[in-house]
């Protein structure tokens, strides 16, 4: 069963009124986000209430800085599945645009959280800010919320190795090819989901057919070769090696994620798959010949098989 995806601009269904809401961006849904969601879900269960995790889409940064490079760690579909796995009864989506950006903190609490979402309580991280000019914070949420019948709790930061867990830390790890740190902070490998497109069939011509995925709004991890798992339609999981980048040995350069799945034959064109990055093997490189490229790809696949053998 998939939990419902609710639009925050419309009234809450009767069955979900009086919920405890975890409120934040929750992009990536890392250890810190999971702590906020866990507090909300535990609170809801203790009072026999629904538990809802709320997120913003597009990310507010995309509204205020529209030319910012892609930085998303998860799509809404991925977040829906992560929230469901965490125990939420629904996902609530606040569409972030000019109207929400101009909403005062007090109006957001009264109109969006109380009148429309009909929330009984809200949980945020201690550093959460909201409202026009970012004037809302956990103190405003608690003090003004009390006047309109909304209870509020805040969850402190989660630290790993003495450093606070944050989406920025996850992004920095991925940009440097540190899959291990990213996986630890996210509690799962970073995964890119997309629809398989037709390409130039270059991989097929040298014995390594790949599934081509556009990166869209996802963060760009370090360009290079990765050991990956592919989550295919129907729930099948396969191992593979993938090139993420612009394929410097071919013209024209096109930015793609191109996984080659071991021991798999099938038509994936037009189907949505998810590719999880487990290990960074090496940077992209330009080869002088197809023979040299093929030899390196064979070595990459052997390395990836070994690294993934225990997974």
Strand arrangement across the biggest beta sheet: 1-4-3-2-5-6
**Span of the ends, CA to CA:** 26 Å
Percent strand: 15-25%
Structural class label: alpha/beta
User: If you average the pLDDT, what whole number results?
Assistant: 93
Overall geometry comes to: elongated
List keywords for this structure.
311 residues, alpha/beta, 10 helices, 13 strands, 32% helix, elongated
Question: What do you see in this structure?
Answer:
With 311 residues, this protein is α/β, with parallel strands linked by helices. Helices cover 32% and strands 24% of the residues. The chain has helices at 31-46, 60-64, 76-86, 98-101, 105-116, 138-147, 167-175, 179-186, 202-205, 290-308; strands at 5-7, 20-23, 51-57, 90-95, 121-125, 151-155, 159-160, 163-164, 190-195, 224-231, 237-245, 256-261, 272-282. The protein has a six-stranded parallel sheet with strand order 1-4-3-2-5-6, sandwiched between helices. The protein has a five-stranded antiparallel sheet with strand order 9-13-10-11-12. A two-stranded antiparallel ribbon has the order 7-8. A hairpin with a 2-residue loop joins β7 (159-160) and β8. α5 (105-116) crosses α6 and α7 packs antiparallel against α8 (179-186). The longest helix has 19 residues, at 290-308. It starts with a strand and ends with a helix.
């Amino acid at each position: 069963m998939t939990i419902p995806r609710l639009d925050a601009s419309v009234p809450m269904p009767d069955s979900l009124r009086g919920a405890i809401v975890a409120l934040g961006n929750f992009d990536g849904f890392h250890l810190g986000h999971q702590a906020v969601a866990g507090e909300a879900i535990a609170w809801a269960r203790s009072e026999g209430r629904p538990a809802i995790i709320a997120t913003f889409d597009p990310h507010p940064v995309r509204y205020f800085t529209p030319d910012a490079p892609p930085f998303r760690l998860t799509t809404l579909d991925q977040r829906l599945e992560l929230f469901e796995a965490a125990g939420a009864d629904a996902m609530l989506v606040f569409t972030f645009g000019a109207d929400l950006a101009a909403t005062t903190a007090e109006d957001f609490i009264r109109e969006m959280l109380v009148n429309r979402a009909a929330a009984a309580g809200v949980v945020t991280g201690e550093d959460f800010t909201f409202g026009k000019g970012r004037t809302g914070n956990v103190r405003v949420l608690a003090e003004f919320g009390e006047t309109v019948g909304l209870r509020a709790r805040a969850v402190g930061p989660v630290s790993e190795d003495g450093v606070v867990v944050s989406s920025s830390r996850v992004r920095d790890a991925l940009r440097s090819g540190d899959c291990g740190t990213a996986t630890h902070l996210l509690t799962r490998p970073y995964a890119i989901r997309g629809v398989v497109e037709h390409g130039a069939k270059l991989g097929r011509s040298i014995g390594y057919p790949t599934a081509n995925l556009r990166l869209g709004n996802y963060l760009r991890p370090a360009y290079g070769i990765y050991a990956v798992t592919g989550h295919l339609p129907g729930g099948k999981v396969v191992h593979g090696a993938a090139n993420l980048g612009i394929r410097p040995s071919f013209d024209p350069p096109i930015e793609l994620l191109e996984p080659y799945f071991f021991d798999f034959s099938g038509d994936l064109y037009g189907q949505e798959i998810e590719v999880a990055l487990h290990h960074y093997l090496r940077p992209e490189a330009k080869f002088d010949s197809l023979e040299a490229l093929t030899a390196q790809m064979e070595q990459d696949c052997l390395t990836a098989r070994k690294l993934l053998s225990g997974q």
